[in-house]
Amino acid sequence: MTRAAAPRATVLPPAAHAVLAAVDTGRPADVPAPLAELGDAGRRTLLEVLGQRRRAFHEQPGDRRPHLSALRLAGAGCHRGPAGCAQWLMASDLRRHRFNPADLAAVLAPRGPRWAGELIERLGDHPGLLLPDYRMIEALQRETGAPVPLGEPFVRMWALAVTERTRHVPRRRTRTGLAPVTRLDVLREDPYTPLLAPRFFEIDRMGGELGGLPAGATPEEIRDPRQWPGALAALAREGLLDRRALLEGCCSVLVRGGRADDPGFFLALLTALEPTDQELEFRTGDWAVLAADAPSAVAAWAQGTLRRLWEADRLSAATLAQLSPAVLFRTEKKVVRAQLSLLDRALRQRPEQAGLLLPAVAEAFAHPDITLQERAVRLLARHARRLPGAAGQERARQRLTEAAAGLTPMLRARAAELLGEPELLPDPRPAAPAGTAEALPPYRGQEPLGAPPAEPATLAAEVAAMLAETASARRPAAGSQPALDFERALDGLIRLAHRDRTALAGALQPLAGHHPVLRDAKVLREDTCRLGVVVAAVLGTLGPADALGDGGAAVRCAADRFRAALDARLREAAHRIVTGDPLPLLLATPGSRDGLLAPGELIRRLAEYARLGVRPAAADFDQALLRLRHPGPEERAGLAARAGAAGLPEGDRLAACLAAGPPRPPSPSPHSGDHPVPPPPVIPGRQGHPAMAGLAVPGQVRTPEFRALAEPFPAVPGWCPGSHPAGHWLLAVPGQREAVAGQLGALLVGENAADWGRSPEDLPLLAEAPGPAGAAVHDCLARGLGSAGDAHRAAAVDALLTLAAQRRLDAGLMARSLARLLRPEAALAHRPVRTAAALAMAAESGAHRTVWAVLAELLPGLLAEARPPRVLGDLLAVAADCAERIRPGTEPAGLAEYAARRGGSRARTEARRLAAALAAR
C-alpha cells in the first residue's frame, strides 16, 4: 500500500518572508522595502500565501486591524493586473483597513505610471466609493502623477471632501488676522476644481447632493461664497472656470429635468452667474420650455426671465404668443396668473399686437380654476376692442370664440357679449334630461358563488395562489373578493379530502416545499395560517391535538373575535380530517356573492349529511345559521317543516331559527344592559366609531366563538394588532354591515394609505355587503373619501357609487359625516381638499345627481359658518359642475346671501357660478 503524497511546501524567497513578517506583526510601513526586491514570480507566489493569511486572520479572535492593513498593502503590490489590484483594495473585508498612501505608491512603483493610471481610473469608477477611499485615490494620484479620474463616484466624493474641508478648517490666516475658510477658498486652491466641477452637469442627481438654496433666497445668499452656487460663480468671474460652460450646463440640466431636488442647485447657480440680457436672449427657447414644463420654482424663474426680455425689447410678440398657451395649460395657479399678467402688460404696451397676443389667452378659458377663467375673461374685456376687424384677423376671433365654449355658462355669456357672436358659443355640456338614469355600477350581490374545483390539481393551483398571497402580503387584484375565494377553496378542500384524500395530498405535496410552515406542526398549533392548517391536515403534518391548536390567540379587540370565529371553523375541519371523520362538504359556504345562504340550499346540505350518516360540525353549522337568508312570512312554515324532516338535531335548530324570523337590527344605543360601553379613545386621525350594543344573532348559536359575536364589543382602540381580513368580517355576519362598520370602522379606514395594512378593496366590500347602511357605514365612506392614497380614494368613490346603486345612500347621513370631518380638529387625519377631489371624481364618472344630493345637504351648514373651511370653494365648484349638468330644482339655503357678498375669492366666484346655474333651470 502506498502513502498519499504530502502537499508540497511553498518555497518563498527571503524578501517574501520579510513581507510576511511585516504582515504577521502588523507593520504596514515595513512592507514596501522587501516587496520591491521581488519579481513577478515571487509576488505571484506570495499572493497565494497572503490569501491564506487573509482567511486565517478572519478566523482568529482579537484585534487584527494592523495585520489586515499590512496584508491589504502587500496584496496590492503583488497583483500583476490593475483589475485584480483594484478588486483587492476595494474588497469589503479589507477596504476599511488604512495605510499610508505613500507606501501604496511605493509598492506600485515598479508597475509604471501607465499601470497606476489605469488602477486609479478603476478605483475612481467603483460604485461603492467612500470618502476614505477617495482620500487614498487622491494621494495615490498625486504621488504617481497619473491622470485625475473623472468617474462619477470619484466626482461625488470630491464634492463631499470639499464640503468636509470647509467644515473642519474653519479659519485661515490673512494680513488682517484670522478669517473664515469659505468654499470658494477651498475650491480656488484645489487643483481638481477645473477638471471636476464641469462634471456636475453630466452626473444624474448631482444637484440634490450639492444642495440648492431655499425658495425666496436673497441675492446676497445666492452669491454667498460659503455655498456651492456662489463659490462656482465667483470662480467663473475670476476665470478659473469657464463661464459659458457653466451657463450651458445649467440650462442643459434644467431643460433635461430630473428629480425634484435637482433643479434647486442649478437654478441657484444660474442666478448667481447673473447672465446678461444678451446671454438670456440667446437661450429664449430654453426659457420657454422651462416655463411650460419645469417644476414651479424653475418655471417662475423662467417667467421672470421672459418678462425681463420683454422689458428689454428682446422678446417679440410673436414668440410670446407662441409660448404662452403651453404655460397657461399648467395647473399651478401662481404660474398661470403670472403669465396672464405678462400678457396683459404686453397688450397694454403694444396694443397693435392684440391679434397675436389675445388668442394666446384662450388656453386659460379651459383652466379648472374658475378664478383664472374669470381673470382671462377680464383680460379679454380689457383688450377685445383692439382686435382688428380686417379679414386677415378673423382667425384670431374665431379661435377665441371656439375656446370660450370651455368657460362656465356665466363667463361664457360674458365672452359671447364681448366677441359679439353668441351663436358660436353652444353649451358643450347640455343639461341631462329630468329622470335620466345615472351611470352607477351594477350590484352583483345576488350572483351565485359557483362550485369549487372538482379536480385536485386545479384546486391545488388555487390554494397555492392564496398561500403565496398571504405569505407575501400582496394586495388583492382590483374587483376581486379574496374572502369569497377563500370560502370556495375551503369547501373544495373539504369535499376532496372526503372523496379521495390520497389524490388531494399528492396534488398539494409540492406546496410543502414552498411553504415550510406546512411541515411545522408546532407553528400550526399556535397559528391558524389561514388555509394552511387544513392543507397541513390533508398532508398528514398535524396530529389531533395539533389540529385543535392551543385555544387561539388572546382576544384584544373586536377584530380578534371575528378571527377567532374563523379559526374555530378551520380547526374543526382540520381535526375531522386528521381523526378520519372528514366532513363531506361545508354547510356554511355562501350560496351567492353577498355572503348569504338560501334556506333551501342549507336544507339540501343537511339532507346529504343525513344520507351519509355524518355528524355536522358545530362551528360550521353556527356559521351557516348566521349566513341564513331569511325568507318571507309565507315561506317560513314550509321551509321549517322541511328542515325538521331532515332527521338531524341541526335540522330542528334550523326549523326554530326559520320560525323565529330574521333577527332585529342592532340597537344604536351606547349602553348594553346597565353597563355603559365606553367610546373608543380619541386619537387624532384614528378615531373609531362608537361601540354598538352587540350583533343580534339567533339564539340557537352554540359555539363559544360565535356566541361571543353577540356579546357587547369592547371599544375599538386607535390601533388593533389583530389580523385584517375585512372580507371575512363581513362574511361572518352578512346582512349586518352597519354593525361591522360600527365596531371596526377604524380598521377599515385609517389615517393614510399604510394604516392597519388595509386594502383599497375594503370599502367597496362594505358597500357591496347586504343589510342596512346607517351612520357607521356612511362615516366609513366619508373617511375614505379623504384618504391619503389615490387608490384608496378611488375605492371610496366606487363604494359611494355602489351604495347609491343599491339605493342605500342617505345623503343627509353622508353630509353630516363629511361636515364632522371638515372641522379643523379632524384635519390631521382627513384632508378636506382630498374629499372635494373625490366628490369631483364621482361626479365625472356620471353620478352628478348623487353628488349633488350630498352637497345640497352639506353646503347650507358650511355657508352659514362665520369662517367657512378653505375647501368651500372646491366643494362649490363640484356643486356648480353638477348643477350645470342636471339643473336641480332646489337651491341650498344661504347660497344667495353668500354669493351676494363682495369679494373675489374662489368661494365667492364659485358661489355666483352655482347661483347662476340654479337660476338657469
Indicate the topology.
Blueprint: H1 14-25, H2 32-36, H3 40-59, H4 65-78, H5 82-89, H6 101-108, H7 113-124, H8 131-144, H9 152-168, E1 171-174, E2 177-180, H10 183-189, H11 193-196, H12 206-210, H13 219-222, H14 228-238, H15 243-256, H16 263-272, H17 277-282, H18 284-293, H19 296-311, H20 317-328, H21 333-349, H22 354-361, H23 370-383, H24 394-403, H25 409-419, H26 456-472, H27 482-514, H28 521-526, H29 532-539, H30 544-548, H31 558-578, H32 599-612, H33 618-626, H34 633-644, H35 649-660, E3 671-672, E4 675-676, H36 704-707, H37 726-732, H38 737-748, H39 762-768, H40 775-785, H41 790-805, H42 811-821, H43 832-844, H44 848-864, H45 872-886, H46 895-900, H47 906-919
Antiparallel strand pairs: 1-2, 3-4
Helix pairs in contact: 1-4, 3-4, 4-5, 4-6, 5-7, 6-8, 7-8, 10-14, 14-16, 15-16, 18-19, 18-20, 19-21, 20-21, 20-22, 21-22, 21-23, 22-24, 23-25, 26-27, 27-29, 29-31, 31-33, 34-35, 38-40, 39-41, 40-41, 40-42, 40-43, 41-43, 42-44, 43-44, 43-45, 44-45, 45-47
